[in-house]
Design goal:
heterodimer; A: 224 residues; alpha/beta; 5-stranded parallel β-sheet; 4-stranded antiparallel β-sheet; 12 strands; B: alpha+beta; Beta-Lactamase; Heat Shock Protein 90; 3 domains; 11 helices; 11 strands; 60% helix
């Protein structure tokens, strides 16, 4: 059974998450403090972590690089309104975030995506997500076996999304990856590329199902 | 008068002394050395008293030289051309020397005046740099008043005559020194000096009274006072900057406290709500009561978000982070987040080639969710989002097929806690539409209501499209 670390200082939330995880077939490991989380991390055997950012002994953001360093995917559990904090957590390497109050089924779905991503081996030449396939060496992309003709920037955006495999990529992360550090603030570049991509890969570009927007945060790829 | 006479007496006594000395020693020294000695009192006179004294001493010296030392003695007659030349040379040398000495003296005086003026400016600068801006300014001002007499600074009430008022208005408008001692309206009793360099809009002024002894301030002094006024102006600017900085700091601190308070309020609400909804979710599959409780808990969450948003609008702490947005994304995310009552269809028809708009993604999301929630509360069977672009403007609307909003209610409905009769499912906070309006306006958008072709209400957001 996969062990999932749950870091939150509220005992009631720890119990609730324990129940939700048990329902999804996971074993929850509770840690009410950052210190307890680090002890659990040293102990090893963790498949993923669900992390509240407001901890009594340390800022939860500081734990993200340590967990990522140990190859444990992190889902941030946030009660705060601030979009900036969610973006910071994602840019530090968190796989996803979920806002309190959350839907149990949604949390389990996000957890499955995060675990699947963590299981994927290091860079390969041919990437696939859902019906999308990308051959990075040949610079070819296809959807349901149908070849897509994509200009370099659109190809790069799609490649980044496929590599992330359902994880959210923040605007800044996508912009940096495709356009370079100097353009992390130029969201309109990204909007134009996403719109153009949708025209080529979505059945109905006005109702996108593959590339989903998270308001103020970024984009993620959906499997459907 | 007496002082003038005594000042002439000293060089003339010098002439007498040289005359006596040279008469006694003529045989030993010779005529040429004696003539040179006569230059000494001329130099003395010119250096002490300027051209007038130099000239008088030179003439007296020449006369004495001629009368006592040149034959025929004790007569002003000149015997022989060489003697005539020596008297003439003495007069000329005396003249030139006294002119040179006078000029040197004038330069020295000028340099002294400049040094004392710059020393004074340095003193004022030093005063202005010490301590708090308010104390420093009042010390510098007292220093200037102590040196130059009564002074007023821009905006202070005083009983100026109409000529003074006209001079002040001129100085204020043109940024030139005006009034007493200057070239403009010199008859005024006060001198008006701008506190900022020329060309910076309307000028605040320093007003200085005519000196008590009645003399006219010389132009040089007015020029110096202009520098003093600029320094005082800098002192005043420093006070204004300091006040502004203080106000900004106070505002930033209270803003931070408000934000912290709202954030912790949200946190404190959300944690128990998460536990409630989480546990109810597990029970909802088996129990209708739990399902109802779950729906109520979710509504509570929305209400809480609305309350916090309303508080932010109320206190004016909204800072939209506008960026380029695709309304297809915005509509899609809002529809995905809607809590759907049974039997109602929600859809959107946003053209995929609509221009991008500039908006705060999170605020626009909140606006759309509230509009959709409101429409779902009143709709009979359908809620639709639509958008179109027209002449650089983009409109985005949310419409339903419910009872609609009567024209008389269309303004009131954006007030807090306003509600229209007729929506059975409408159980919102009563803040939803007030937040729509507050957020939309903060992002520079307008919001309006009209009748929808579907039969109900259509709420439209008007925004600028990106080129």
């Amino acid at each position: 059974m996969n062990r999932v670390l749950v870091v939150d200082d509220e005992p009631a939330i720890l119990r609730l998450l324990g129940a939700v995880l048990a329902r999804g077939g996971y074993e929850g490991v509770s840690a009410p403090t950052a210190a307890a989380a680090m002890a659990a991390l040293r102990h090893g055997g963790l498949a993923a972590a669900i992390l509240d950012l407001g901890l009594p002994d340390r800022d939860g953001l500081e734990l993200i690089p340590m967990l990522r360093g140990a190859n444990v995917p992190v889902i941030v559990l946030s009660a705060r309104e601030d979009v900036g904090e969610k973006v910071a957590a994602l840019d530090l390497g968190a796989s996803d975030y979920i806002t309190k109050p959350f839907d149990g089924e949604e949390l389990l779905a996000r957890l499955r995506v995060a675990l699947r991503q963590a299981g994927v081996a290091a860079p390969r030449e041919v990437l696939a997500y859902g019906a999308l396939r990308i051959d990075t060496a040949r610079h070819e992309a296809s959807l349901d076996g149908r070849a897509l003709t994509l200009p370099p920037k659109e190809f790069a955006v799609l490649q980044a999304l496929v590599e992330a495999g359902g994880r959210i990529l923040t605007h800044a992360a996508l912009l940096e990856k495709v356009w370079g550090k100097a353009h992390v603030g130029d969201v309109e570049y990204l909007r134009v590329a996403i719109r153009a991509l949708r025209l080529k890969i979505e059945a109905d570009p006005a109702h996108p199902r593959l590339i989903r927007n998270e308001p103020g945060i970024g984009y993620r790829l959906m499997e459907s | 008068m007496w002082r003038v006479l005594t000042s002439y007496a000293v060089p003339l006594a010098g002439v007498a002394l040289v005359t006596w000395l040279t008469s006694a020693m003529l045989a030993q020294w010779g005529l040429a050395s004696a003539a040179l000695l006569f230059l000494l009192p001329v130099l003395l006179g010119a250096a002490r008293g300027g051209l007038g004294q130099g000239l008088v001493t030179a003439l007296a010296g020449a006369a004495a030289y001629n009368f006592f030392l040149l034959p025929p003695y004790f007569s002003f007659r000149v015997h022989g051309p060489d003697h005539a030349v020596s008297v003439l040379v003495l007069v000329l040398v005396a003249l030139v020397t006294s002119r040179l000495a006078t000029r040197l003296r004038a330069r020295e005086e000028e340099a002294l005046a400049r040094a004392s003026a710059s020393e004074e400016l340095a003193q004022i600068s030093a005063l202005l740099a010490k301590g708090t801006p308010v104390d420093a300014f009042s010390r510098a001002r007292d220093f200037v008043a102590g040196h130059y007499g009564p002074l007023h600074l821009g905006g202070e009430e005083d009983g100026f005559s109409s000529l003074d008022q006209a001079a002040a208005a001129w100085a204020m408008h043109n940024g030139d020194a005006t009034g007493h001692g200057t070239a403009v309206m010199a008859a005024a009793e006060w001198s008006f000096l701008p506190l900022a360099p020329k060309g910076r809009g309307t000028h605040a002024l320093m007003a200085l009274a005519r000196p008590e002894d009645g003399h006219t301030r010389p132009l040089g002094e007015i020029e110096h006072l202009q520098q003093v006024a600029l320094l005082l102006g800098q002192g005043r600017d420093r006070i204004a900057l300091e006040e502004e900085r203080h106000a900004r700091e106070t505002f930033a601190e209270s803003d931070r406290l408000r934000r912290t308070f709202l954030a912790s309020l949200a946190h404190d609400f959300r944690t128990p709500l998460t536990v409630m909804t989480g546990q109810l979710e597990a029970l909802a599959a088996r129990s209708d009561e739990a399902r109802e409780a779950l729906a109520a808990a979710r509504r509570l969450e929305r209400t809480m978000s609305d309350l916090i948003a309303a508080a932010r609008i109320e206190e004016g702490s909204l800072r939209p982070q506008c960026e380029s947005l695709d309304l297809v994304d915005a509509a899609d995310a809002a529809c995905a987040a809607a809590v759907m009552p049974g039997g109602i269809e929600l859809g959107h028809a946003i053209p995929a080639d609509l221009p991008f708009v500039r908006a705060d993604a999170v605020m626009l999301h909140h606006v759309l969710i509230n509009l959709i929630d409101n429409a779902l509360g009143y709709a009979t069977s359908r809620v639709m989002l639509g958008a179109q672009a027209q002449g650089g403007e983009v409109t985005l609307w949310v419409e339903d097929d419910g009872p609609g909003v009567p024209p008389a209610e269309r303004t009131r409905i954006f007030e807090r806690f306003a509600r229209i009769e007729g929506g059975d499912r409408a159980q919102g906070s009563g803040l939803g539409l007030a937040i729509v309006k507050g957020f939309a306006e903060a992002m520079g958008m307008q919001v309006s209501i009209e009748e929808s072709p579907l039969g109900g209400a259509r709420f439209t957001l008007w925004m600028k499209g990106e080129a």
